């Protein structure tokens, strides 16, 4: 869905309360009282068929009796009346509806039928949007709109609050009002039959008054839309999420190691990280975290300097910091010398910097100034305890003043009650977060660190590790489709490894022997030593039945091994069909490690990739990381770096590390395989042997989703994030015959993007961006190279000169939230002007827009940009030129 007409809900001029009541205990009473009593300046229509007036306000018997169509209708009547009311409101022209009424799918099948009836009625009126049912309602403090049955209206602020729990909303409101916390929007979403969390994130992102968003999530329904909206918002403003149900068990039994380890909560955690969402685990951190993230510059690291007037709190802060994974900064010699110059002789001479109990405000401020300037320090904690000589208010003023000099985060902990209250207020007014305990300050700071790391994932440039395929992936799909449809639910090791090998992942090839004699012949052919494994469609984990033998060195051992494996399998799994044993080369390298990589189909976020410590102890050590495909070099490396075993992989105490680049490439290839085959429900590669030279899959097992095989799915529906759109890669020629590759931009293109803009004249830059800059920055590149292909499409023109790839132009389409209108802009390097490249890019972008489902393309260009004006005119764009402006607006409807 789109965010169309959500402004009718959040900025209405006329509001109807259907089910308005004079009964103080009813929802209709509270909603009407809140609307009238909160100071809303619009028109309020009570609707009640039995009363002439409700709460002293003239009432109307039904929707048809209203003098004007309401922009927003709040429905408080019994569930069975709602479908009919939706029809009446649609006929009246109402576009915004909040259904507070309960009694829908939360009560069972009967309620679900009512929801379907509501949706059937809504479908008759295009553009109608519905929040709920079974919700608390909405509050927009900025226009004094309280269309809810909450007890009070919070003050105006900059936090957008979205909750799936109405009960939690009431508690949060009470708490927020008590703390003086304000909101831009406060929404209880209920059953979300129409307006989703993604819709609300998009809408809040379009409103400047929202500087951060808090989510209370029980479950996500539309993962792709949620991830797209969250990533778009989180690039510039923070999202904080509290996810309940952390320890819910998966409904389906897992057939693989990956399925067993990748639990529901771990997948949400991976999704939040990929979207740049900061997750909290305590409700009390909710507002502290949102305010901190919105007001403070993200730190470059987690190294903290502590300035305190008491040793004990300094130790407490250190303990809390280390327990949560932070680090105490090691102060430089220069910093230590500067502190020695003005601090009393008995100061701590270390970090934490104890300025002693008699410290006046000036001593505090000078110490903060010195440690904040230390390059080894990423943030400063200021701890104050109210001792006899302590001026807590004066110290707060001094800290606030010195903080203006530094960009690094400075956090305070003013420990005490009334004696420190004024100081805390001063710090807060100066945008310095202040807490009542050091532990709270540490917790908030570590959220800031985590947020910075997640944000960097959205902005970090991967190296361009070439992952090329020497085969036709479409042709290959035809080959494997027959194997997928004809085989069992769990594919054989041979077929599973064939998938991996086709995607360039090295494997040991297994050969099936149905008899001991065949096993001997195979072993002699491939060479000793060999590995033998039991072969049965019903036995997923071979080691569970003693079904693996290693280092078999001669013919006699092969014969004995065959009989032993078959006997063990028959004893432990008499129900299993034993087809024989596989024989494969024994691979053994010194300084090697066993990893596991796998994929699991999560019911919410689709395919998830796991990497971790492998072998038979994979589920014992549970050292693993999850990531959402598709993976690039940065994402693959981050997953590896999060493992406890990462230091071993890099090399530890004289032991050489493994080939990290090769391992990253294998993970990227694996993610391509996962993206290309939605039929793969689970896939284990365990063990994946990694060595200083190579990476090789020793065992693999694929679990197939029979339902998808039978019915199919739309492309990439099994992924929460749209992969690189290879369908838009093409080769074209300029008028002079120059071959040009047109393709969507990639994060790896950042270096070439910088070169492209550096080659452009100031006039070309002005025509494209409408402002001038001295040079491009990584932050700019993050905006233009790191894009969500569901929302934006930038087509670059690439050529090869002297063996070097270069970008010579880029055309960009940015779709609106409704995915109906796209803004277009184009840039061509000056050296390539006059060769038809601007027209070529425009033609192809219009073609992409049509395939992308866009209905209209709009663009703005300067009246002086003759080339682009001619390009648009030749392609049938409509011109809207205003005499008093230097900009021409052009529009083209896509047929």
Automatic annotation (TrEMBL):
<dbReference type="GO" id="GO:0005524">
    <property type="term" value="F:ATP binding"/>
</dbReference>
<dbReference type="InterPro" id="IPR036291">
    <property type="entry name" value="NAD(P)-bd_dom_sf"/>
</dbReference>
<dbReference type="Pfam" id="PF13549">
    <property type="entry name" value="ATP-grasp_5"/>
</dbReference>
<dbReference type="GO" id="GO:0016747">
    <property type="term" value="F:acyltransferase activity, transferring groups other than amino-acyl groups"/>
</dbReference>
<keyword id="KW-0436">Ligase</keyword>
<dbReference type="InterPro" id="IPR000182">
    <property type="entry name" value="GNAT_dom"/>
</dbReference>
<dbReference type="InterPro" id="IPR043938">
    <property type="entry name" value="Ligase_CoA_dom"/>
</dbReference>
<dbReference type="InterPro" id="IPR051538">
    <property type="entry name" value="Acyl-CoA_Synth/Transferase"/>
</dbReference>
<dbReference type="InterPro" id="IPR013815">
    <property type="entry name" value="ATP_grasp_subdomain_1"/>
</dbReference>
<dbReference type="GO" id="GO:0046872">
    <property type="term" value="F:metal ion binding"/>
</dbReference>
<keyword id="KW-0067">ATP-binding</keyword>
<feature type="domain" description="ATP-grasp">
    <location>
        <begin position="497"/>
        <end position="533"/>
    </location>
</feature>
<dbReference type="InterPro" id="IPR003781">
    <property type="entry name" value="CoA-bd"/>
</dbReference>
<dbReference type="InterPro" id="IPR016181">
    <property type="entry name" value="Acyl_CoA_acyltransferase"/>
</dbReference>
<dbReference type="Pfam" id="PF19045">
    <property type="entry name" value="Ligase_CoA_2"/>
</dbReference>
<dbReference type="Pfam" id="PF13380">
    <property type="entry name" value="CoA_binding_2"/>
</dbReference>
<keyword id="KW-0547">Nucleotide-binding</keyword>
<dbReference type="InterPro" id="IPR032875">
    <property type="entry name" value="Succ_CoA_lig_flav_dom"/>
</dbReference>
<dbReference type="InterPro" id="IPR014089">
    <property type="entry name" value="AcCoA-synth-alpha"/>
</dbReference>
<dbReference type="InterPro" id="IPR011761">
    <property type="entry name" value="ATP-grasp"/>
</dbReference>
<dbReference type="GO" id="GO:0043758">
    <property type="term" value="F:acetate-CoA ligase (ADP-forming) activity"/>
</dbReference>
<feature type="domain" description="N-acetyltransferase">
    <location>
        <begin position="740"/>
        <end position="895"/>
    </location>
</feature>
<dbReference type="Pfam" id="PF00583">
    <property type="entry name" value="Acetyltransf_1"/>
</dbReference>
<protein>
    <submittedName>
        <fullName>Acetyl-CoA synthetase (ADP-forming) alpha and beta chains, putative</fullName>
    </submittedName>
</protein>
<comment type="similarity">
    <text>In the N-terminal section; belongs to the acetate CoA ligase alpha subunit family.</text>
</comment>
<dbReference type="InterPro" id="IPR016102">
    <property type="entry name" value="Succinyl-CoA_synth-like"/>
</dbReference>
<dbReference type="Pfam" id="PF13607">
    <property type="entry name" value="Succ_CoA_lig"/>
</dbReference>
